[in-house]
């Protein structure tokens, strides 16, 4: 009963986290409409590319397992598309080789992943092992990507167009995932617990940085130095 309850709660918060990703995209669109110079300057390409890979991996995994898991697949597909749109906005704003490769890579993965889901075979026996290994890799990449984003904010003394709601809503999802993993049990839930804990810590740091840039004299000095 508890597993079903917390699983349902976690699914609800996964959908809520989509609002956070869309909020980031909307922030970029608003910045463009206001003709802000380089609205994506302080957005980490590495962080958003890793976020895309995380959502995309779960999207493919949900299609590959038996039975087909709608709760895993469709929210992650929507999130992958939204993050791909953010990568597109970063590419439009910067237009460098790295941004081009990241965008093309995301598009290719979406196409190939969808074809795999339509034409590929499912797996059952090795599913848990593959999932655990995949989550460990994703966790490491997420930590690195968000570390890069945190460095950018601290260096600039500003959050730029980074959206606070995205971090807040994803943190809510992480907390619900931690609760769900604990209900499942450490033996089976440790990969989810690992991913959600690391992700949650990075979101807490970023949320703190939104306060830091407002109250820290050091952050203010960095912003002033950037304008002189």
TrEMBL record:
Would you tell me the protein name for this molecule? Uncharacterized protein
UniProt KW keywords:
Membrane, Transmembrane, Transmembrane helix
Q: Which organism encodes this protein?
A: Neptunicella marina
User: From what superkingdom does this record's organism come?
Assistant: Bacteria
- Transmembrane stretches in the record are 6-25, 45-65, 71-88, 100-120, 126-147, 168-186, 192-213
């Amino acid at each position: 009963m508890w597993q079903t309850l917390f699983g349902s709660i976690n699914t609800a918060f996964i959908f809520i986290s989509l609002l956070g990703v869309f909020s980031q995209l909307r922030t970029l669109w608003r910045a463009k409409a206001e003709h802000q110079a380089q609205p994506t300057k302080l957005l980490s390409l590495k962080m958003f590319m890793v976020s895309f890979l995380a959502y995309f991996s779960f999207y493919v995994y949900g299609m590959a397992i038996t039975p087909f898991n709608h709760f895993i697949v469709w929210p992650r597909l929507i999130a992958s598309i939204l993050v791909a749109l953010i990568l597109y906005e970063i590419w439009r704003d910067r237009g460098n080789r790295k941004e081009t490769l990241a965008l093309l890579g995301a598009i290719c993965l979406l196409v190939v992943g969808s074809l795999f889901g339509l034409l590929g075979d499912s797996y059952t026996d090795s599913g848990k092992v593959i999932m655990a290994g995949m989550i460990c890799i994703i966790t490491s990449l997420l930590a690195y990507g968000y570390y890069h984003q945190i460095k950018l904010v601290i260096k600039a003394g500003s959050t730029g167009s980074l959206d606070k709601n995205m971090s807040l809503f994803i943190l809510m999802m992480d907390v619900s995932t931690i609760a769900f993993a604990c209900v499942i049990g450490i033996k089976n839930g440790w990969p989810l617990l690992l991913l959600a804990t690391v992700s949650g810590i990075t979101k807490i740091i970023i949320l703190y940085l939104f306060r830091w840039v407002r109250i820290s004299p050091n952050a203010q000095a960095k912003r002033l130095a950037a304008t002189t």
